[in-house]
Design goal:
Length: about 120
Amino acid sequence: MIYIVINAVPIGIATLLGLLLAQFIDRPKGLGGWAVALISAAWLGAILAGALILAPPKAPIWVMTLGSAVVIWAGFVLPTLATSLHLAGQRWNRIAMACLWWLAVMLVQAVVMRLIGLTPP
């Protein structure tokens, strides 16, 4: 996982911009909420960076960039978040907002990291 250290700057910038722009959909509550969101977004950004580095050039670069974010979100974030929030008794509109919030974060992160550039290990 050395690629995370090598790409700490693009991952960090993508994390901050993703959180900043996603707050137009919703906002974390309180300092604790922001801390959890920051750590979670940074980890998802690191995973996404790995996917962007390893993605084979089978399609145009922006299709692979945005597609990687959508596949990770749809495959891991969406079902986990929707199930957890549903089991916690949240209403469906709240679940949808939370899921869309994370999709927005990941799409912004993918675009930012592609524009800045990532260095493979």
